[in-house]
Specification:
Number of domains: 1
Shape: globular
CATH class: Alpha Beta
CATH superfamily: Ribonuclease H-like superfamily/Ribonuclease H
Strand content: 15-25%
Number of strands: 7
Number of helices: 7
Largest sheet: 5 strands, mixed
Order of helices and strands: EEEHHHEHEHHHEE
Low-confidence stretches: none
Structural class: alpha/beta
CATH architecture: 2-Layer Sandwich
Distance between the termini: 20 Å
Radius of gyration: 17 Å
CATH topology: Nucleotidyltransferase, domain 5
Length: 226
């Protein structure tokens, strides 16, 4: 992954937990991000992990609690308001001049992040941001299934990271997966702003203008960038 730092002085790893799958009406309930730099090795310089209060009258679906372990009571007692969390993320992003953002299934997280920041009046901080979807890379290299937990197993990271469906754990797991993928093949730069999608279902959510989308088949015979 060190090759990515040849073009970026700051890499942010991001994950979200949400109330559902509809980014325009559902909410982020946990936002986690870590900022890394390279200085004789990859180091985490900044970290955030926010539980986020739901809007007045909104109720957390039981299925989300079952998946994540996050409860309505946790959000009320430990959560902060969305605007405060958005400001924390904006300030973290501002610490780097040339930023790269990495997420696993980045299309999902970026749709939620945009509307999260938009509601807080801060969506402009995403302008010009370069992105890498770790799921796209993993699909190019390994057979189905392609969940983050599968990548953790493939790269034998079970004793090093936790896949708990909590954003903070999944963000740190993603960092280790990316380090392993960087050692596996030196082509991560080729995936910048390139997202694969299942041709059967099309691009999920709203397309991001700066992203090139390509249909990505299971067990492809060549990398998506070729």
């Amino acid at each position: 992954m060190e090759t990515l730092f040849q073009n970026y002085d700051s890499i942010l790893f991001l994950d979200t937990e949400t109330t559902g799958l509809h980014f325009q009406k559902d909410q982020i309930i946990e936002l986690a991000a870590i900022r890394c730099v390279s200085d004789g090795g990859i180091h985490i310089t900044d970290e955030m992990d926010d539980l986020i209060q739901l809007p007045q009258g909104k109720v957390l679906p039981p299925a989300i609690t079952e998946l994540t372990g996050i409860t309505q009571e946790m959000l009320q007692a430990e959560g902060i308001c969305a605007a405060e969390s958005a400001e924390k993320f904006r300030l973290m992003l501002q610490k780097g001049k040339r930023n790269l953002l990495i997420a696993y299934n980045a299309q999902f997280d970026m749709n939620y992040l945009f509307y999260f920041l938009y509601r807080a009046g801060m969506a402009d901080c995403l302008k010009g941001l370069k992105m890498l979807d770790a799921l796209t890379v993993y699909k190019d290299r390994h057979a189905y299934p392609h969940r983050l937990e599968n990548a953790i197993e493939t790269y034998a990271l079970q004793g090093k990271v936790v896949n708990s469906h909590r954003a903070v754990d999944d963000t740190k797991a993603l960092l280790e997966v990316m380090i392993a993928m960087g050692k596996e093949r030196p082509d991560l730069n080729r995936y910048i702003n390139l997202f694969g999608y299942n041709p059967k279902f099309g691009v999920s959510g709203k397309k991001i203008r700066s992203i090139e989308y390509k249909p990505q088949y299971y067990n492809a015979y060549k990398p998506l960038y070729e």
